[in-house]
Amino acid sequence: MPRSPLTYKEALAWLYSLQRFGIKLGLENTQRLLAKLNITLGKARGALTASGGPPDSSANARLIHVAGTNGKGSVCAMVDSICQARGYRTGLFTSPHLVTFRERIRVNGEMISEDAVADGLIIIRNLVADLDPHPTFFEVTTALALKHFSEANVDVAILETGIGGRLDATNAIQSDVSVITQIDFDHEELLGTTLVEIANEKAGIIKSGIPVVCAQQRPDAEQVIRTRAVKCEAPLQFVTGSYDGSPIGLRGDYQKQNAALAIAAVRAAKINVDNSTIARGLAAIDWPARFQKWDERIIIDGAHNPSATRILAQTWREVFGDQKATLVLAVLADKDLRGICEALAPIADSILLPKIRSERAAAPEELSEILASTWPLCRGGASPAGNRRGCPTISIAKSVGEALELAREKPNPILITGSLHFAGEVLAHLRGEPAAFEECAQ
Fold it and tell me: Of 223, 228, 143, 136, which is closest to residue 178 (Cα–Cα)?
């Protein structure tokens, strides 16, 4: 008998149950699943027509694949917005989501519907029931996204890698251009503990004869990318400048570098766009939790590794000068806690550490100890008792709501950061919506 239809919540509950299989880097499972679904995206090589217009079939869609440590999501969103501004029908796949799973999969900026999620997952669940090893959460999510894009007959599909690149599920399909953003340390337990090892994984999205567009890198990472591109006979372009042609809807000088990379990626994929289209697309971009201004006092940013938090601190100074922040910080336990704290400490006047609703979160007490140790001249470190000799006060809050209430009582602008998961919980709280982890609760 066929399985009974699932509701959206039931379908998500099944999908999240696949997290028990953990993270398995490799392409075979995804390739088998895409073959079962008859996915045919990403096989075109000629230029898309200047008029926009749909291709003859989804097999003619352009596919832009983006890897890197920081900036992947912003670059993907910029490519998506530029292509939409030209009239192309786009598919955008990113991760993680902030408030709802549906954010991960979009067509022309519209999130996948609850019905499409449920219907797609029913089909996939039946297809994978007998597969061994069983596909993971991310493998199934990638297949769902590509199925949705194929059925929507997108002109351009933009895929952000989940972790790494070489063995990431998104690498199971042929791309038209490989994009590599800035590479730094993150996910060392899976990708390696040296920059060379991590760069090898990211450079794994480079394919035979397929153009590569790459951000400026540190020498070790650059050499890995150059070597891989030569081996694959893949044309390689390093983008070292910034885009200054028009305003960008995202704040921070680093977004100008991301914009230059996004523009180069669009052109490498032979997608016809002019300067006015680029300007419209970059002005219209909406990408939450990237130095997002919520109101006159609150900034939300999902920076979650030392490199990203250093850039965040730099952007804070660009916008606020010498004015320090009331920092509301929560970080996942598997991240470089000390590196993140040391990057953010210099811009903080006071720090609030809420207990957040994630089993993966570092304990606020642990963050407090690390933060206190970063001010050795503060007579034993920063203190919850008071701001001595210019040292930040550190307070632990019972919840996100309490932390925001305490932050608003202070005079400084408020910076909420440390994790995209935390940013999502804060956004849900501010919007009065269920948080991501409540979406599939029964």
Answer: 228
